[in-house]
Structures are given as structure tokens and as C-alpha cells.
Design goal:
It is built from nine helices and twelve strands. The chain has 269 residues and is α/β, with parallel strands linked by helices. The chain has one domain: Vaccinia Virus protein VP39 (Rossmann fold), CATH 3.40.50.150.
């Protein structure tokens, strides 16, 4: 299941416009009964082109031609994910040694770079779990003594339990997100940080097809709108909720329910 989950990760560039609020043409359609049914209704995406865009943008940051990169777009200033940084700093304050982070779906380590940009004293051990196209380029161009890349979650989890497991814009693109959360809880991670995840107030999850218009990037892909209640239940009773937040883009429509891009900071109970 874990290897399949890695293969099903959607490239982050598909969310590029979502962070700025609902846009015409970015749609969440349907209420599908199964993942296979949603896949049949999807057109897919060009993985190689997406990886190239994100890699080229991250290399510009490495060469000093840009201050930051998110989802293949470069910026003149670091675009901190402040709630995520707050959760990481909280975890670091409770860890006397090097903080151990497992970043599932972390592309080329952009959140690691943001964390280091804060100038926090002390070392960190940061493991990005991604698709092979990302890990190959990541290991060759961005890996260092603190940042490493893995294709398999089990490999990234070898050794002491993580201080933080980070899930940013990844849960909604997994065939079985609740089974994956159970695996995260079983790993013994001291903190779980979830960011930019579509959540509804419904008691059930909704499986949609997310469509991105050609002017952004032509793609369509299965996407869960997760029940906030069910998401948190999947991590109970091992974790207690410290804080919840949204990305500020407001409510998004779908055929079955409106949702927000939500985040959570959780601590081992």
C-alpha cells in the first residue's frame, strides 16, 4: 500500500492556483464510489513536465536567482508556510538533539529550505519521501548532511521515531488516506503536521476529480475532500489536536460539498 501511495502522489504544481483562492476552471467534480471509478473519469497529467518545472525553479533558488520556489513558481521573497514553521519550531524546542522530520510528498525539500531560512540553531535530519523522478534529481542536486530523499516511507522511518511527520498537500491524492494515517500513527511520530488538505464538515469523505485548466496546466486527477472529523479520528487516540488552521483562500465549491484547504498541528497524546 505504501509503495502504491508514493506512485499516486500528485505533483504539487497542480495546486499552484488553488492557494490564491477559487479560480474559474479549477473544478472538483463528482462524488465517486471508488478510486478506480474516479481514475477512469480522469485525464491524468504529464509527470515529466511537472517534475522539470519544479526542478528548474528549485535550481534557480539554489543558484541565487530567486529567493523561493513553490510548485514550480519562483518568488523574490521566501514564502513561509507560517503554521508549518510554528509546528516545526515547537517540536524543535522539545528535542535536545537533531530534530528528525519525515516529509511525505516534499518534492525537492522546499519546506526544509524554508525552515533553514529561519536561522534556527541546531541540526535537523530531514527525510523527503517522494516519487522516483523527484528522489533521483533531489539526491543528485539537493541532498546534504541533513536532507535526504527516499522513495519508500518504510526506508525513511528506519531508526528512531520521527519528531515530526509532515503531510503537506499529499493526503488528498492517496487512494487510501485513512490507512496511510494509521501507518503514520503506528510509526510513533511525536508530532504530525498536516497542511493544505481539502476538508469538509461532512461526516463522510467525498471522492472527486480535480480538473486544472490548460492555461495553468492541463490535468485531471482523483482528489479526496476529507471529512475533518474522520481525519482527526484516524489519528486518535494516539494524538491530540493542538491547533487547526486554513490557508486563507476561503471556501471552495464542489458538486457534493464546499471545503477549505485546512491544516492541523497534532502532538502525541
Amino acid at each position: 500500500m505504501l509503495k502504491r501511495a508514493i506512485r499516486e502522489l500528485t505533483p504539487p504544481i497542480l495546486l499552484r492556483a488553488i492557494r490564491k483562492g477559487p479560480k474559474p476552471g479549477i473544478l472538483f467534480r463528482g462524488d465517486y464510489a471508488s478510486w478506480s471509478e474516479a481514475q477512469k473519469a480522469s485525464g491524468g497529467y504529464d509527470q515529466d513536465e511537472i517534475v522539470r518545472r519544479v526542478f528548474d525553479a528549485e535550481m534557480k533558488v539554489k543558484r541565487g536567482e530567486a529567493a523561493d520556489e513553490r510548485d514550480g513558481v519562483t518568488f523574490d521573497a521566501v514564502q513561509f508556510s507560517l503554521p508549518v514553521m510554528a509546528g516545526l519550531l515547537r517540536a524543535a524546542a522539545r528535542q535536545p538533539g537533531a530534530m528528525r522530520v519525515v516529509d511525505f510528498g516534499g518534492a525537492f525539500g522546499g519546506l526544509y529550505r524554508q525552515y533553514k531560512a529561519l536561522g534556527v540553531p541546531g541540526k535537523v535530519s530531514w527525510a523527503v519521501v517522494e516519487q522516483r523522478a523527484f528522489t533521483t534529481l533531489g539526491a543528485a542536486n539537493f541532498q546534504n548532511d541533513e536532507l535526504r530523499f527516499f522513495e519508500n516511507l518504510d526506508d525513511a522511518l528506519r531508526g528512531p521515531a520521527p519528531d515530526v511527520t509532515l503531510l503537506s498537500s499529499s493526503l488528498q491524492y492517496l487512494p487510501e488516506p485513512h490507512a496511510f494515517l494509521k501507518r503514520v500513527a503506528a510509526s510513533g511520530a511525536r508530532h504530525v503536521l498536516i497542511d493544505r488538505t481539502p476538508c469538509t464538515t461532512l461526516a463522510r469523505d467525498v471522492l472527486t476529480v480535480q480538473t486544472v485548466p490548460p492555461e495553468i496546466y492541463p490535468a485531471s486527477y482523483p482528489c479526496w475532500l476529507l471529512s475533518r472529523e474522520r481525519l482527526l479520528q484516524a489519528l486518535a487516540p494516539q494524538y491530540r489536536l493542538l491547533a487547526s488552521f486554513t490557508d486563507g483562500s476561503g471556501a471552495w465549491p464542489s458538486d457534493a460539498a464546499s471545503f477549505e484547504l485546512a491544516g492541523f498541528i497534532l502532538e502525541q497524546a
